[in-house]
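Lecture 7 notes: from sequence to structure.

We start with a single chain of 374 residues. Read the sequence below before looking at the structure.
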Amino acid sequence: MALYWLFILFVSIQCRYVLYTFTRIFSLKEGEKLPVNERKPVSIIICAKNEAANLRRNLPAILSQRYSNGAGIELYEVIVVNDNSTDDTAQVLLNIQQQYQHLKIVNSGVPVSGRKGKKHAISAGVAHARHNWLLLTDADCMPTSGEWLELMVAPLADGKEIVAGYGGYYPGKGLLNAFIRWETLHTFIQYSSYALGGKPYMAVGRNLACTKDVLQKAQQSAKWNVLPSGDDDLLVSVAGTSDNTAIVCDPKAFTHSATKATWGEWVKQKQRHLSTGKYYKAPVKFSLAIYAISHTASWLLFFILVFSHNRMVSYVSVYMAFRCLLYWIVWVGAARKLHEKKLVYLFPLFDLGWMLYNFAFFPYISYKNKKSWT
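Now the structure, written as tokens:
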């Protein structure tokens, strides 16, 4: 009987999260364009380490954004930081620069003590940025439209200092591709809902706008140099507030990149991403932990009760069905907003898969750090 009441408790906690937190995503509207007289110059910063192929494919779209003043003069520069690449990155950048004069190439140089990896490259880019409005993305990312820049920086004109966008992945074949896309959607639901509730805690560096002032504030934090990456999460965790953080959820302001090709590559990537979570603010860490624990416990207790207490099967099944219905409704709504409709039929499988995900990555969520950027 104790297991039954524990099950009810955890399912109730899950329902509370979806009803009072995750439904906030439905309040997100498409972005608004900036009037020409409100546009300020922007520095787009991209860190590249052995990204020749990606830069050749994606950089022209970033350099062709429609963002200019009333006279038609471009109001942005694109800074690509070549972080000690050993492939053809340097030559590719020089070739592209011949066509686009607003491309600035920066070499990251030798990392100084205490500042290494992507954070060192970002610091080099910020040091060369001429403008206070910054837009960060990765070399493997393609913006979905020529309005990406304008839509992402629009909240900065309203006084926001941090703008988190959606960095999705291209649809492809196989279960790995689908799960990565679902996990990305699920993560967006979490961090956007928390931000809308006044508790921002993370963003994705694939699609992030901020002011130079707030980024430099984060760089002065003791947390900043703990990891070689995690600049996006730590920026929001250190400097994000209920008043200075905005979420942009406009299909024209998304970025997309290719998913990892193998489970091993993806696991390595997630180990790096999840290493930052332990440095979130205590209330956020507690809330995220309760969410993950209640999710895992709900499914585990459901299976235990179904297979060991025949007289409770009907009650347990009804409670779990109600919980799943709430979640899947929210996930379907989010999938439509984020143009991930093809994932809908896999939601039941990935709901269970996230339980295994939490078991697999628990050490990196809790105490381990991933020490390398790549």
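The first strand starts at residue 42 and ends at 48. Keep this in mind for problem set 3.
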